Structure prediction request, 188 residues.
Amino acid sequence: MSSLRSVICIVAIISKTCSPRSMKSHGTSGTLVDFTDPKVQGHLDALVRLAQSCVIKVRATPKDVRAYFTNSSPLSRSGQCFAACMLEQSDVINHGKINRELLIHQASLVNGKNSRVVRKLNSISRVCLDTIDGMSDRCQLASTYNDCLNENMMEFAFPLDIAEEAVRKMPFHLIQPNLPQELRASRY
Prediction:
């Protein structure tokens, strides 16, 4: 995604906690993500590589990836498992357990410990734990937790143009080798 005109933090993509409006830097408060920050671009590039890996691992479709990156609930089992793969690969979920502290720590690295994003994520991530109580299916657990974060942090929704760029960067041809390039993006 190095061709993106904007960049975003790793946690913003995972938990969709940033928007173009909320990502402009305001002084030295460190409360909002600066899309022009090379450090943030590095996080984005790493996360895209992680998503590419997850597409292959779970055989995710463009529809699955688009749902994830646009804060929509997955419509398929592979979409749920894509969410699980993303959260597991980032260690936010480890052995079926949510690591809230890591999620909040990652958000604070870019947004600042006392930022609005981190304060809200701290509170909402705790509430969202209740939604997964007793779940053992890793894909359902991850998807339900991720959906809860998305529903409760809508004002930090992931920018659509960046989400669409992420979808275009995925290696769908590796799991659907006979599908022509122009049909891969539009078919789903």
The first strand starts at residue 93 and ends at 94.
